[in-house]
Design brief:
The complex is a heterodimer.
Chain A (H helix, E strand, L loop, with lengths): L2 E3 L15 H26 L14 H8 L7 E3 L5 H7 L3 H8 L34 H13 L6 E6 L6 H12 L4 E7 L2 E2 L2 E2 H4 L5 H6 L5 E5 L3 H15 L5 E6 L17 H8 L3 H11 L5 H23 L16
Parallel strand pairs in A: 1-7, 2-3, 3-4, 4-8, 7-8
Antiparallel strand pairs in A: 5-6
Chain B lengths: L3 E3 H15 L3 E5 L15 H5 L4 E3 L4 H13 L3 E5 L10 H8 L2 H4 L9 E6 L14 H5 L5 E3 L4 H13 L4 E6 L6 E3 L13 E4 L4 E5 L2 H15 L4 E5 L2 E3 L3 H11 L2 E8 L4 H11 L11 E5 L8 H7 L3 H13 L7
Parallel strand pairs in B: 2-3, 2-4, 4-5, 5-7, 6-7, 10-11, 10-13, 13-14
Antiparallel strand pairs in B: 1-8, 6-12, 9-11
Helix pairs in contact in B: 1-7, 3-4, 8-12
Classes of the chains: A alpha/beta, B alpha/beta.
Amino acid sequence: MAIRKKSSASASEATIAALPAERQRALLEQMQLIRAFDEKVDKLYAKGAMHGTAHFCVGQEACAVGTLCHRQEGDVITGTHRGHGHAIAFGLDLYRMAAELLGRATGYCGGKGGSMHIADVEAGMLGANGIVGGSMGIACGAAFAFKQRAQDHVAICFFGDGAVQEGIFNETLNLASIWQLPVLFVCENNQYAMSLPSEKATAGGSIAGRAASYGMPAEAVDGMDLDAVFTTAARLLAGCRNNGPALIETATYRYLGHSKSDANRYRTREEIAQWRANDPIERYSRTLTERDVLDDARSAALAESAVEQVEQAFARAERDPEPELASALEDVYA
Amino acid sequence: MPDQVTFREAMTAVLRETLAANEEAFLLGEDVGIYGGAFGVSRGLVEEFGPERVLDTPLSEAGFTGLAIGAAVMGMRPILEIQFSDFITHCMDQLVNQAAKLRYMFGGAASVPLVLRTPGGAGTGAAAQHSQSLEAWFVHVPGLRVVMPSTPADAQGLFRAAMADPNPVLFYEHKLLYNTKGVLPDEPEVYEIGRARCTREGRDVTLAAAGLMHNYALEAADTLAEQHIDAEVINLLSLAPMDSERVCESVRKTGRLVVVEEDVRTGGWGGELITRVAESPAFYALDRAPARVACADTPIPYNKRLEASIRPSPERIVEAVTQVLANDPGRYA
């Protein structure tokens, strides 16, 4: 199975350009919402207004949006510790996410999960996960259930370049391939596993190359380019449905630290600036402007609206009650 | 006399019954298909239910345990076999950080109804990496249930209960039980997880045990009876939850307690059981210090005599009871 690198779509492939203008703008709005959400959370931590920790995906927005916009009714996803983007692109409610981060009773987990465990199992969001690679088996299990039940759904499994070095990456890619499970593995290669550069951690260099060796279609794509992620994900996802697994490796970057305690000692300002110069939101905005589906006024209005939606979500959540202490002892067993 | 079946036959039958009754149930593990499982428990099932319901996995305990968790979250009823309970170390993250915690972390919005069967225990000359009793680890993890049958009837009653339970259940089968025989009840029974059973009434000492060690305790009780010591035997059946109430009730009658467990003494579940008795009003009923019969704090050695020397046995239980009874508090006054 070949690893393909493609930046432009062939005539028969799904492209964002072929979508209605409204839909094209909606994808921009989703990326803006994700960014506004994580920037808000970052500010709250900086002010000391937030308990615990969180991991930000500022810079990585195109990966979640470009893949999850293809999700169909019944498809499920598993996220990662850096998971706010997955949850928002899946369609989770900003207010209930904010409530969870603020530890409120109205949060998705009743205030017992926090940033790393946001889930809406009934809707098919099977959870962010605090263990690197920890949800890869769960995604395979959901895909196994689809196959056993002869349903044409797909499990979309997010993980980072760090998870690729874990044993379970090998175990689950192998299982998914020999049993032909409908899983789309989405590797967000943001270049660092906390502080260790992906290139120093990845023997052989290519994550897509590893996946290809398991006999599944695997492609590496520019994760800062929403159009490229969209088209590649559409192709691979279509191949997964009623069929076996595939992997997409998105080259991306987190602008902010690993978590709130990161002093960025392992990378340079110049490197961060270089990636920021290729920002997925700015890049996609320019593309939409060139396509005449966006003008400056509309662009500014969308960005403003994203910030406003996030502000409202947090303002509403802040007024919500804390969980009853008794709830700490509940939900251990069904 | 009614027909006797082996523990293995009882397990195979209850697996067959489960797979036939619930099409969302499936069995997966290493060599569970045509080979029939390392201990022959699933023999014949792949022929009957097909390779989509009885799945031979690659040697990837973390991967297929994770898969079972995901399938369980989606409402299926996976039954996993971990070929030797020692290999459970490979899937610790999946059991401890995923299966046990998803429900809690998600605020009650998920359940993980899976059953993990695994052969454990020593006495087979399999040495240090194929003989351990690590179940106490999982007693320490809220969100998991840990059960341990002693007889063919227990195996079926507990397995049905495990399948009916909406939580992850670890089902420990002692390897030395597979060829032991017992009678099955006329009507299929479903046990209650967390409810101990008194399997022999007595007045002089309470023997609390689970799994194979329960059978050793019964043997010891027979020997003790010849010495006019009347032992009561409590079969815990479940270690998480642990029915310490039932043990306390027995201790209030006998005033003496000996716990028998095959895991190593330090950090074992027996210490937890004795602590619970000591924390309860039953403490005042004790007229002797409680004792534990457990494995020595060593890995399991290969040599047959060495192995026997560090494991509990009916003889060692008799010795422990004799010592407990001899420890008259008056002697320390």
